[in-house]
Structures are given as structure tokens and as C-alpha cells.
């Protein structure tokens, strides 16, 4: 990274990120896949320099799967919109001796990911399918044999279902590799933060797969790191507390869920206080207050003995409420 001239890798990665923000998920996935493929070709599949490329690609695949299982859009992300630059994917000079990873599992993962990316379309605006979509580690496109979690089968749309399974499988593998590679960077706070981002992604995949017990473990692991490396009013903290609350709730642990929802609200209140009277942030403050209000209502509803409020599985829920309402209003207006 430090060249003034953006390389093809940087151009692909930047384009992918931009497309993702614009909601063009498939073309974004194609670009991020291409960026990953080029990065792996340049540095080798298990180089820590590839960590962010694996992460960005996995995150895009997860967002696509979430959008498909939650048609109102994954507005939970609203909680996290920090506007933080994620450009810390600079290649670091990592000692060659550090390239060997513990055990063979990671190399196997990397081989799978590299093979899956082999059929990536050019990084254009095309919406040609990319990795994971039936492009397995073998030339014949066999399914991956890794021990990623099984994806819950839906009754309808078997083909779309298989596609989503492949996306989640590929996302799982790439988050897992990214986590291992970020961990190799040691105690650097940026790298620690990325490890937690990977754990958050893995937890979200467990939610999609309805493995709520596993999700609790991964959200808690992500939180433990976020609490060390993020400011107390960071929306990512709030988002993670909230997700952990949903996972507890779906495990039938209402008191634990209520405690996490309360922590999510507390982070948002801190953020309102931190933003204060900054005129430029007035819209965010309004949005934060609405979110706090929704979470407080949710906690109150949960506390009612009779108030068994059905909750949506997966990373949806009241934090989406604002955006879901907007989407519904938009649809009505259309």
C-alpha cells in the first residue's frame, strides 16, 4: 500500500466498496472477489496482507444473504454508521517466517477460497455471479467439505436457497481466514478491531443459520474486543449488544436479552451526549433518540408477563424499525 498510484487491487476494492454502499450488491461482490483474487495472487493466500480483502468480500456476501432473508434491508447497520474510514488494509511488511499458520486448516480454507475466486468475472458493472455460487474447490465445482455450519433450509425457492447457502458458506470461510490473518498482526488495536469485526460477521452467519447458541458465543467474543478498542459511544458497540440481546432472546433467555438491550441503549445515549449541540449532526442525534426510544419500548414490552413479543430471527429487529418503516412508506408512496 503506500503508492500514490492506486493499483488495480485498490481500484477494484474501492469500486466494490462504493457499489456496496450504493446497494449494487452483485457487482460489488464481483469487484471485491476480483480484489481478493489479485491480492492472493500477489501475496500468497495466507499472507496477513490479504486479511482485509478476505474480510471485505465476506462482508459483502453476508450483506447479500441478509438482504435476501430480510427484504426490508439490513438497517441494523444503521446502528454502526460511524463514517469511519476502513482503508486500513495497507499491506504491512510481515516477516516471512510469520507466513506459516498453525495447523493445516487455514491453508485448506485458503485453498478453497482461492479456488472459489478462480471464476471471478472482470471487475465491471456486470452482475455475473461470482464466488461460492457452485464454484467449489475442485474444477468440477464440487461443494466445499469444510465444517462450516449447516444453513437452515427454507421451504420455498430451492435454487435461491442453495445460492444463499453457497454465499453464507463462502462468507463463513473468508471471515474465518480473515480472522486468523488479523490475529497474526498481534496487539495492534486496528487489527484487534478487525478480529472483532470478523467475529461479528461469523455471529451474524450463525443467526442466519438459526444457531443462536453459537451466535451468543461469537457476539460475546466480539464485544470483549470492541470494549477494549472502541470508544464507549461507538455505534458498533451498541449494534453488537443489540445483536447479542436478540440471540439471547431467541435462546429463551429474556433477562440476559433485556440486559443487552439496556446496554445498547446506554451506548446510544452516550453518543447523543457526545454529539451534543453539533448542528451538522442533528439528523444523527434525532435518529439515535428514535432508536433509544424503540429499544426502551422493546425492553418494556419484554417485561410485561403477557407480552411475549414475536421477534424476527436474524439480524433484523427494532433497530431496523426506523428504516423498515421508511422502506414501507417508500413502497406505499411508489
How does the SSE layout of this entry go?
Blueprint: H1 8-21, H2 25-43, H3 51-69, H4 105-116, H5 158-183, H6 189-208, H7 212-229, H8 235-250, H9 254-275, H10 282-303, H11 321-333
Write a structural description:
The chain has helices at 8-21, 25-43, 51-69, 105-116, 158-183, 189-208, 212-229, 235-250, 254-275, 282-303, 321-333. Helix content is 60%, strand content 0%. The chain is globular.
**Shape descriptor:** globular
Structural class: mainly alpha
Query: N-to-C terminal Cα separation, in Å?
Result: 45 Å
Which spans of ≥5 residues are poorly predicted at pLDDT below 50? 1-6, 73-78, 80-107, 118-155, 312-329
Number of helices: 11
* Element order: H for helix, E for strand: HHHHHHHHHHH
Our estimate of the beta-strand percent is under 5%
What share of the residues lie within helices?
Answer: 55-70%
Summary of the model, kept short:
The chain has 334 residues and is mainly alpha-helical. The protein has helices at residues 8-21, 25-43, 51-69, 105-116, 158-183, 189-208, 212-229, 235-250, 254-275, 282-303, 321-333.
Amino acid at each position: 500500500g503506500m503508492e500514490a498510484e492506486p493499483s488495480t487491487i485498490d481500484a477494484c476494492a474501492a469500486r466494490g466498496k462504493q457499489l456496496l454502499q450504493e446497494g449494487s450488491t452483485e457487482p460489488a461482490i464481483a469487484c471485491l472477489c476480483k480484489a481478493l483474487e489479485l491480492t492472493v495472487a500477489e501475496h500468497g493466500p495466507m499472507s496477513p496482507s490479504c486479511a482485509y480483502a478476505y474480510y471485505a468480500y465476506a462482508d459483502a456476501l453476508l450483506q447479500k444473504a441478509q438482504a435476501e432473508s430480510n427484504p426490508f434491508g439490513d438497517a441494523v447497520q444503521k446502528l454502526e454508521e460511524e463514517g469511519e474510514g476502513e482503508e486500513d488494509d495497507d499491506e504491512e511488511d510481515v516477516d516471512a517466517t510469520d507466513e506459516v499458520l498453525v495447523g493445516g486448516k487455514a491453508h485448506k480454507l485458503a485453498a478453497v477460497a482461492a479456488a472459489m475466486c478462480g471464476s471471478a468475472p472482470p471487475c465491471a458493472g456486470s452482475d455475473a455471479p461470482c464466488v461460492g455460487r457452485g464454484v467449489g474447490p475442485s474444477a468440477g465445482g464440487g461443494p466445499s467439505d469444510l465444517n462450516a455450519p449447516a444453513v437452515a433450509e427454507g421451504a420455498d425457492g430451492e435454487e435461491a436457497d442453495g445460492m444463499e447457502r453457497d454465499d453464507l458458506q463462502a462468507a463463513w470461510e473468508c471471515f474465518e481466514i480473515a480472522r486468523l490473518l488479523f490475529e497474526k498482526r498481534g496487539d495492534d488495536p486496528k487489527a484487534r478491531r478487525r478480529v472483532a469485526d470478523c467475529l461479528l460477521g461469523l455471529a451474524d452467519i450463525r443467526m442466519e443459520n438459526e444457531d443462536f447458541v453459537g451466535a451468543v458465543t461469537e457476539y460475546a467474543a466480539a464485544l470483549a474486543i470492541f470494549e477494549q478498542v472502541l470508544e464507549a459511544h461507538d455505534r458498533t458497540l451498541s449494534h453488537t449488544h443489540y445483536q447479542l440481546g436478540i440471540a439471547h432472546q431467541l435462546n429463551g433467555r429474556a433477562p440476559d436479552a433485556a440486559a443487552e438491550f439496556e446496554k445498547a441503549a446506554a451506548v446510544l445515549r452516550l453518543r447523543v451526549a457526545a454529539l451534543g449541540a453539533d448542528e451538522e449532526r442533528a439528523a444523527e442525534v434525532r435518529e439515535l433518540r428514535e432508536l433509544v426510544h424503540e429499544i426502551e419500548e422493546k425492553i418494556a414490552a419484554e417485561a410485561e408477563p403477557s407480552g411475549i413479543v414475536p421477534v424476527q430471527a436474524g439480524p433484523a429487529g427494532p433497530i431496523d424499525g426506523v428504516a423498515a418503516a421508511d422502506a414501507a412508506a417508500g413502497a406505499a408512496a411508489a
